Amino acid sequence: MAFDLDMIKAVYAGMGDKIAAARTIVGRPLTMTEKILYAHLYDGKATQAFERGNSYVDFAPDRVAMQDATAQMALLQFMQAGKAKVAVPSTVHCDHLIQAKIGAEQDLQIANTENKEVYDFLASVSNKYGIGFWKPGAGIIHQVVLENYAFPGGMMIGTDSHTPNAGGLGMVAIGVGGADAVDVMAGMAWELKFPKVIGVKLTGKMSGWTSAKDVILKVAGILTVKGGTGAIVEYFGEGANNLSCTGKATICNMGAEIGATTSLFAYDAKMKDYLNGTERAEIAALADQVAEHLRADDEVYANPASFYDQLIEIDLNTLEPHVNGPFTPDAAWPISEFAAAVRAHEWPAKLEVGLIGSCTNSSYEDITRAASIAKQATDKGLTVNAEFTVTPGSELVRYTVERDGLLDTFAEMGGVVLANACGPCIGQWARHTDDPKRKNSIITSFNRNFAKRNDGNPNTHAFVASPEIVTAFAIAGDLTFNPLTDTLKNKNGEDVMLDEPQGVEMPVKGFAVEDAGFVAPAADGSQVSVIVDPASDRLQLLEGFTPWNGQDLTGMRLLIKAQGKCTTDHISMAGPWLKYRGHLDNISNNMLIGAINAFNGEANKVKNQLVSGTPHAEVPQVARTYKAAGIGSVVVGDENYGEGSSREHAAMEPRFLGVRAVLVKSFARIHETNLKKQGMLALTFANKEDYEKIQEDDIIDIVGLTTFQPGKPLKVVLHHADGSSDSFDVNHTYNEGQIAWFKAGSALNLIRLQNAK
Ligand code: F3S
User: Of 479, 496, 513, which marks where a domain is finished?
Assistant: First the structure.
C-alpha cells in the first residue's frame, strides 16, 4: 500500500470542527475550496476570517510530490535541515528526464544510462529520508498521484505546474517551486495568498465526440491564459456528477493553462468508483463518512452567484468538441469552426503527427475512446495519414491497456508507444523531421502548446484536443477534416465516416500491473548513504551558508544595478542551464546574466571594482572575484524584482556567490521570501528616488543590523569613488522568525540548529 491511511484518517477526524469554526468566523456558507483550506491551517482552527485574494495564510499541506527535475535541488536542500525523515508523506517521480526517440523500451534504457547519477541520487536520498520513489518508467507524476495518493478533501503541493490534476479526486493540489516543497517536508508552514474562488457550473450530459477535455478547452477560451490567476476553480452541478473521475482530473490538470492556483470537484460517486477501482476502498469508505465536508455548503450551490467571485455556466448537452491553438491553449475553436479557422489563418492543414496520452489524458477511458477510433482505421480500410504516438501516463494504465489489447489496436494503425513519461509534452522529443524550418502542424492530447514546447521548433503549430479527436485527425492527416460530419476515402475508394468514440471508464477486468515501479523507503534510513559522485557536474551536495557574524555589513561592492524588468528568468535562466539544477556551483554561472546593467544598458557586463584595466566582466565572474576576496556584494534592482516563477535557484545562486543583500524598489513576494529563506537581506528603498544615488563604483554598508527588528528600517551608506557619500533608510518585511533565518544564515540552518537541540 503506497498511501498513508493514518494521515487521511487524521485529516478527516479534524475536518468537521475546523470547518464549523471557519463557518462561524467567516459568517456565511463556505465553498468547497474554503472548507479544505480552513481545514489545513498551519496553526489549527481558524481564529480570523481571511480575505479571498488578499490575505497571506500559513497552511499545512498533507503531502508533497516532486518530479525528477525539480526534486534534485529540493532534496539537496532538505538534507540541510538535519531531519531524519520528511515531516509529511512525500514522493519522487522520475518522468521528466526521459527523451522520446525510438520507443518505450529503448528510450528508457538510454535515459537510465544518461541520467544514472541523478536517478541514483534521487533513489538513495528518498530511501534515506522516508520518501516514496517511483522509478523511471513508472509513470508521470500526476497520473501516479491520482492513482495512488490523491484523496478527497486533502491538500498537496507538487513541484510541477500540473499538480492540480489531483483536483479530479477532490484534492486542493497546487504546483509550487522546490523551496516550498522543502518547507513542507521540513515541517515548516507553507504560505499562500488566500485564493479567490471561481465557480463553473456544469449542466447536462456529454455525448458523442465531446469529452471532459472539451470542458477545459472551452473554459480556457472563456477565461484566457490569465483568467484564473490567484483563483481556485471549483466545478459543480449535475454535469460534474456525470463526468468520470479521470475526466475531472483532465479538467483540473489543464486549469494550469488558465493560470489557476488549482481546480477541484466535489466528492461524488464517480470518485468513489475510481478509489474502489484503484484499490483504495478504505479511503472511499472514510470519505463517505465526511462527505458533507467534501463539497460546498448547500446554500452555495443554490445561489452560486452570491458566493463565487466569478461564475461560469457550461451546458454539456450542447458543448462541441474543441481544438485549441496554435501557440496558446486559450485559442479555442469549436470543431464546427476549426476547418475555416485553419484556412483563414493559413495554418498548415497537413497534419504530420498526432500524439495522445501524457499526464493530461491517458486514463483507461481516454485510451479506450481513442482506440475505438483507431480500430475503425483498420476495420474500415482507411489509410492513416500522419504519424501517431501514445504516451501512457503510468505503468498501471500501460499494462492494463496492453492486457486488454488496446496497444495492439494502436500498433495496427501504425502507432508507436512511448515510455510512461513526459517525453514530447515537455520537449523531450527527438522528432524526426526532414526540414525544421518548414511550417508544420501537430496535434496532441497534452495541455501546453506554446511555441517550441513539444519539439523545440518554432515553426511547429501545435494544437490541443481530446485523444479521440487527435486520433481521428491522425487518420485523416488533415486539419480541415471534421470527424463529426466529413467522410474519408478508404482503400476501396468508398466514402466512410468514423463512428462516435466508445469508451469504458474503468477496466472491466480491473487494473493490473506486474511492477508498478514503486520503491518504498527504508523504515529506518539512518544507515543509508546518499549517492552523489563528487566528480559529477550535475549534482553537488550543499554546504550550509555562513551564519551572520553579529555585525553590520560593511565594505560591500555593488555587483549590479539592474534596470527594468528582472524576472527569475533574468536572475537564473532556464534552457540549457536546467541540466545543472542539482549543482549549485555550476548553475550559478547563469546568475543574473539576463539582467540589464543600468550603467551601460547591457546584459551580463558589469564593472569589477577589484580589477583595473579591463574592469567589465560577466556578472557571475565578478561575483566570484568578490567572493574569493572575502568581500560581500549587493544587487540593486527596479520594480517587481524577481517576478515570474518560484525558482529557488534565483535566491540560492546570489547567496552562494557572496551577495549579502538585494535592494530594490519593490519585490515579487515569492522571490522576496525565497531570499529571506536563504539568509539574505531583501530590502526596499524607503524613498524610491534613492535608486538614482547608487553609482557603479560604490562601496556599500548596511547598518542597524545589531538592532534588526520587525518594522524598523535599516540604513544604507554609499561610499562613492569621489570620496563623497550618501545614506538613506531602507525598509524590510522581516518578522521575528525571518530575522532568525537571517541570523542563522538560512531557514534550513535554523531548522538544523533546532533539530540538533
Ligand atoms: Fe508536465 Fe509531464 Fe505533464 S511535462 S505537463 S507533467 S506530461
Answer: 496
Cβ of 206 closer than 6 Å to ligand 1, yes or no, is no
What predicted TM-score, i.e. pTM, was given to this entire model?
0.92
Q: How many domains does the chain have?
A: 3
Task: For residue range 63-100, list pLDDT tens digits in order.
Answer: 999 999 999 999 999 999 999 999 999 999 999 999 89
Report H helices in 380-456: 395-403, 406-412
Q: What is the CATH number of the domain that holds 621?
A: 3.20.19.10
Cis before 326 (ω within 30): yes
Local confidence band at 426 (pLDDT 50, 70, 90 cut-offs): confident
Based on the domain organization, do 469 and 355 belong to the same domain?
Answer: yes
Reply yes or no on whether 448 is catalytic: yes
DSSP E strand stretches across 229-307:
231-236, 262-265
Do 73 and 92 meet the contact criterion of CB atoms below 8 Å apart? no
Range of the domain at 395: 322-496
Q: Would you call 96 a catalytic residue per the annotation?
A: yes
Q: What is the pLDDT of residues 20-31, one digit of tens each?
A: 999 999 999 999
**Torsion angle, CA of 746/752/756/757, rounded to 10 degrees?**
50
Q: How remote is the CA of residue 472 from the centroid of ligand 1, in Å?
A: 23
What pLDDT shows up at residue 456? 86
ipTM of the complex: 0.96
337 backbone dihedrals φ, ψ, rounded to 5°: -110, -5
Judged against a pLDDT cut of 80, whether residue 644 lies above it is answered with no
Distances 257 to 245, 442, 473 between C-alpha atoms, Å: 20, 19, 23
From the candidates 62, 68, 160, 180, give the one annotated as an active-site residue. 160
| Ligand 1 pocket residue status of 100, Cβ below 6 Å | no
Task: Please identify, by atom number, the ligand 1 atom nearest to the C-alpha of residue 360.
Answer: 3
